[in-house]
Amino acid sequence: MPEMHRISRFGLVNAYLVAEEDGLTVIDTMLPRSAGKVIAAAGARGAPIVRIVLTHAHGDHVGSLDELKGRLPDAEVIISARDARLLAKDMSLDPGEPRDKLRGSYPGTETLPDRTVEPGERIGSLEVVASPGHTPGHVALLDTRDRSLYCGDAYTTLGGVATPAKVNPLFPLVYMATWHRPTALDSARALRALEPARLAAGHGKVVESPAAAMDAAIARAA
Ligand SMILES: [Zn+2]
In which domain, by residue range, is 217 found? Predict the structure, then answer.
């Protein structure tokens, strides 16, 4: 099984290191002032960070991007083309998108992405999977080697497996920051259909064999 390493701040917000043959991929960057923790975790694995992938443009996922890129100027920064606009603080909606309010914090970054991706593309071993709803261009990342699903905020596991389409009283923040809840529910179903072997969310612990818990979360939100 490929190596997965979860890095957490205060047990609330996660980043992940995914081992590839050419080095490590960082998924999300947590809150500001987290770069040292990410770099230390990579150092402990003895491998360089070669790329930084963002699941979406919210502040608790992009918060240390500038600091990380400053310390790792050669790391390739990757985000979906749609959420790259939010990273640049362009808050406009596309004509075909639901007219709902963009919720949550979009602080933007000084760092520009080196590469933008569309669903279906590959980033090393990771397949980019469309999962809009929490944000318009939210993506999940499926490790094609072992079906680990890095789902960003398309599910949360803190306070139990939940979708952002219905409030989880034990951890309501991601629901409150969700743009369009019906779309988020559609995405939750699409991710469940991928039959992930484990669910690695932006908030909460990694959940092994998550199918039943994902089904229950979808049923609660439907
Ligand atoms: Zn978010």
Answer: 4-221
Please, what sign has the CA dihedral across residues 107, 82, 165, 209? Answer: negative
Tokens 């390493």 map to which residue?
5
Average pLDDT over the chain, rounded to whole? 97
| Per-residue tokens: 79 | 């985000």
pLDDT-based confidence at residue 2 (cuts at 50, 70, 90): low
Distance 24 CA to ligand 1 centre (A): 23
Domain count of the chain?
1
pLDDT of residue 3: 73
What residues sit around ligand 1, an ion, with C-beta below 5 angstroms? 58, 153
Q: Among 68, 73, 83, 2, which Cα is nearest to 30's? A: 68
pTM for the whole structure: 0.97
| Centre of ligand 1 from the C-alpha of residue 164, in Å | 9
Distance 53 CA to ligand 1 centre (A): 14
Q: What is the CATH number of the domain that holds 126?
A: 3.60.15.10
Instruction: Name 37's Cβ contacts closer than 8 Å, sequence gap at least 6.
Output: 7, 9, 30
Taking only the tens place, the pLDDT of each residue in 117-144 is 999 999 999 999 999 999 999 999 999 9
CA distance 191 to 133: 13
Q: What is the spatial order of strands in the sheet that 13-20 belongs to? A: 4-9, 13-20, 23-27, 49-53, 76-80, 115-117
